[in-house]
Amino acid sequence: MKSKIFILILLLCNDTVYAQVAGRVLDKSTGKPIANVTITTDDGQITKSDRSGNYRISDPEHGTNLYFRHLSYMDTVVKIDVDYQSKKDLTIFLDRKSTQIEEVVISTGYKTAAKDRLTGSYTTVTAEQLQKQISSGITSVLPAIASGVMLENNADFSGRLMVRGLSTIRAEKKPLIVLDHFPYEGDIDDINPHDIATVTVLKDAAASAIWGVRAGNGVIVITTKKGGFSQKSKFNLSANVKTASPPDLYRLDIVNSTDFIEMEEFLFENNFYDQRIIDYTRPALTPIVEALAKLRDNEISQLEYDALKERLRAADVRDGYLQNFFQRSTLQQYHLQGNGGTDKLSWITSLGYDKGIEHNKNKNNRLTYRLQNQVKVSPKLHFDSDLSLIFQSMDFGNPSYGSIKMSTMELYPYAEFSDAEGRPMRIPQRNNAYIDRVAEDGLLLDWNYYPLLDYRHITDVRNQSTVNWNTGLRYDISSFLDLHLKYNLQQSRAHSENQFGEESYRARDLINSFTEVGTNGTVIHRIPKGAILDRSGSNNFAHNLRAQFNYDQSFEDHAIAALLGVEGRIYKSTTDADRIYGYKPENLSFANVDYVTQFPNFITGGRNNITNGQYRSETDIRFASAFANTVYSYKRRVNLSGSLRRDATNLFGVKTNKKWNLLWSLGASWLVVDQSASLLNRLNVRTTYGYSGNVDPTMAAVNTIRYAGTNTWLNQPIAMFASYANPQLKWETVGTLNVGADIKLWNDRLDISVDWFKKKGNDLFGLDVTDPTAGIGSTIVRNVAKMNANGLDLMAGVKAINTSNWKLHFQFNVSHNVDNVEQYYLTDLKGRNFVNERAISGLEGHPVYAIYSYRWNGLDNTGNPVGYFEGEESTNYADIFNNTPIEDMEYSGPVLPRWFGSGGGILGYKFFELDFRLIYKLGHSIRTRSVDYTTMVASNMTHSDYALRWRHPGDEKNTSVPAMNYPLDSNRDYFYKYAGVLVEPGSHIRLQYINLSYTPSVSFFPTLKYSLFANVENLGILWKATAKDMDPDYENMYNSVAPPRSYAVGLRVQF
Amino acid sequence: MKNKQLYISLLGLTILLSAGCSSFLDVKSDKSLAVPTTLDDYQAILNEVDNFLAPPEGEIMSADHYLPDQTYDAIACQTSKDLYRWIDNLQIDNCMVNGWALAYKNIYRANVAINGIKDIENSQPASDLSSNIKGQAHFIRGINYFELAQIWLNAYSGEESRTKLGLPLKFSSDFNEATKRATLGETFDQILVDLYEAERFLPLSSANLYLPAKPAVWAYLAKVYLYLHNYEVANTYAAKCLDAGYQLMDYSTVDGTPTFPFKLLANSEIIYARFLSSSGSPASLFTNGVSPQLYEMYEDDDFRKTLFFRYMSNRNIFRGDYNSGSGGNFCGPTIAEMYLILAETHYRMGDLIEARKYLSDFQAVRKSRVPTYADSELLDAILLERRKELLYRGIRFGDVKRLNILGEGITLKRSIREQEYALPPNDPKSALLIPQLVIEKSGIEQNPR
Description:
The complex is a heterodimer of chains A (1055) and B (449). By secondary structure, chain A is mainly β.
């Protein structure tokens, strides 16, 4: 027809004349048979290809055309001329319609199948959707486009992708990442997004049961781009650059310098620092405390003190960071891809280069290379190979915010890195007066820390190279049976070197600490002068081998597709680390130190060993699995599916019969309506039920020990118990029911897919408290827990306008998820054990992660917070904090969003397209931070609420921040920290990106296509439920602000 | 034909995989993991650093050290604050080392080693190495029970107290075994059984201070029998330690210029190295001042007055730690302690001449001038030397309990922000409350109040 058609005809010459034309219809890119291709002739014959792609036309007239039509493929016409007449093997290859997604093909990693024939719940994201956001990895990209996927920050798995919420309490909660056919052991973000063709999320049990034990938390299948047979060579070039300003440090909720100084003066008057000033370990003092001590001892005058205070009140450590260490971040990405193929060989290759410079000058470089080939060795034997190489280097630059500390404490807010003339200033790490005194003797290295200079003496470089090689053979035993052998090798080597130069504070500090001065003034450096070089490396190997039979046959109305296979997997990991003292990088010399003898610390005289920094570990994790999967279809409308899998792993100390676990799923679907041109175009209903499990490494039948380190007193190895004989422990099991429907309305203009699910976990692992007298500590893992979860995933697409010039599409993903603990053994029902919302709370009838808080009754007229104890108002904080039973606590909502998802629209006019996406999380609560006086004085972790604290009677009407009293009462601080008044709703909607693209058609050069785009990401929060000035996703991390808005421009060319 | 091919290949695959599977899955998932079976494994289990640590609760409850009010205020951990002033606390907040859990973990490790070596010796003859490890395990189990008993049980007051509440005695490697309290008498019987077993199996001497040998067992037997008021036997074992060749150090020759004048190694007094657990917030208790009243008791001619203390700003800080301030305070037995046990036991057995001899031999290396004591002053002088010599070693609290049984009438007192706190003689609170978690999970009886 009008569109370009490539026709490839294989002729097997045969002189015998048959009065018919027969052959097969195959997919041009995969070489797979295509069923249900309608074949018509000019003279009115109609036939359809069968499951094996075979067709037969009797007696075609000379010169007639054969028309091959299929929903998902380009229409193809073949003229039967003299040469073609009477051929018994006329094989036709059809081109898949590239932009059409009428028949979505889903890759589960074990097979690809038309979505129609799958009974489970899947979401697929295309390359086009992925490319709307500019990133070097897909973790941050998926939540804005994939249904049921969320990036979670507030529970104990920060920054982790989650698929459909929780299905276990204690076991692994990460989804399984599959790259093409095999689990990917590396970091998902190492994969260049430009090489990705589709990302499929397998959400329910039928989808995941085939992946076994590791699939309980959902599976994310990444399929890379593949070449196709018989294609002209094509090249794609893409280049883009993204930039963002440094994070807005002024949004950090730390106290201002004036308030901090005021607090220090208050504490000084109360003798809080007396011990710290004279302490024989010489801890660091802030400049104000140091000056106050000098003022008290008449070493400086009041005038001098006031001048210092005046100067420091105006200082802000954030200015220092921004001026000296921060800049705009940039990310440049370049990617060139070529693909093509002959009738026997297809190829695709790509080269990608990413160069990122973070706002603190951390440099990331990544080079990716890929070569994928498919070869038809013979009509029955196909070979493929896919090699991918990733080289990465990371070079750490300037200090990141918060990394400069005062010894182990946070930096005071008025810290100065340089004086008025720009000369570097010291930040105290020890008592400055003491450091100055010992410096007078001239025996030691300078013991001061200058942040402006220090990072220049530190190099921290990490290199990583990754090889991922997939290869396979497919042998067509018969038209309905194939044997697949697949092998995958993954190797990743990483090496890091962290060199603290002789001039760096870290090196000087260690050398000084281990310096001894003899009575006659001789100086002995137990750690020789020179740099300290920490090296660490890791080497990870994974081998996967799979043998699999695929059976695919149809008889009239019935069709069966089945697979049966076995696989084995070895994942070996070695890590090691060492340290070199007295290192001279200029000539690579280094020194020996004595690790066995204890030497006195220069300051305290306490004796310690020199740390040797050596470490080594070797793990070898193995899996063996057998699996089977069958789909029976009746008239392509009714499908019944079932899968079965047994997994085993080499858990140490576990009895063999417990190493194996059986997982299964069943499913059914019914295509109720499938017609064009009516209100309801399509209605497909599906349901699945499956059973999966999880294993805990502590399931050992005997006590196991782990060799860990050396007892330096004895110079002998130490073994600790790794697990205690716990033979009652068994696999945990999770059953998942999924019911879904796919609906298309009004000529496919409205496309809805909805899934409801219910998960039920039995015999889940939970920590059971044990009697410490037993000698194994106070907790042990047992199968003590039960939980359930249910929810909903809804995807809806609307093509509001779809004309040749105008396009207006909307798409929404809505996910709902509620988890509920049914049973979890808790012996200590004191409320204080439930206040950490990042830990599993495990209270029956509530979510796994929940916020509980102390009931709050405001401040009294002395600025003290008032709570309740045993039903009465109380200010006995020790009782409130320690003894409030959980039933007297307030349940303040779930930590995980009840509703989450994304939504957006595309507005197109001619060559322009404007695209935006929102992300939202709704229905959860956030425990906001406020001032915690105990922590503030102990570690300088401050909060700007300090300025709002109660100061005078009457303030209690306007503030809920308690007064600062001395002595501090940690129970009072805990009570306030975990009181209901600080819990805020977490619901919010953020605008993730806006993308504008321009894709003109180039009439003078028809094979050339190009597109230009501009993009803004992280546009910020559009709406939030709380009135507090905060970002709910970043609120509970100290020293962290939301990522800044970023801007990108780019170009894509295809020729 | 095609089917035949299929079946053959299927069969082949199945055989291949099922044959390979069992050994494929028998590979260790982590090279550092092991099931303890060899003598080296059991020695490595006993090498765990915690095995060298003793519960700190007793030391916190003795009144030898002192915190200025501001320092006390700055302590965040309520449990350590309450221990410091003898307020009942069930250790729910878990903010400091739980000595009960620490000691029972040590006992569990010892049990695993004892039971494991029993299995090994069933199949092969006992060797010096297996005896040695077995001896170490019995030693560790015995001294841990002894340390627990001094803190959580009432003092031993003769036959009539044998039926009082004792410790749960654990012998199994099965952590599911029920916990029951034995009697006080049974507890001390077990301590002695373990120490006698250790004496039987351990060698005469050890190359390493951290590995026990027979003298270490004798020293603990002397300590235990003294606690049981069995002066004759205590005396015998203390004397055996003297015969083993340990020497008192002459403090007049000790250089006082380093921050910590004493070293653990090359220290002729140390019989066995053991430390008070100091991890957790109350560590500062030990790095802080010594009680001013105690400090005043050291005469100016006492070398310890300068070698043990350093005046820093407003108080005297203890620096006489034989572990030179590295981690926990030294709390093992020394030959000096044996001299003091010999002096006290001779006195109590009525041999004042011998008592005086050991006291003056000891004082000769601690003081520049050896005082003379009238018969009536002698016992007080010996007990005062015990207190002055053995401070910060977790010994004082047990001593106070033992001496109060003998009618010494020692009341421990502290004053915090003008508030007085006291632990009167033989008060029920001298047997610390067992942590709440233990009571809840095991159902054993709590110490009465």
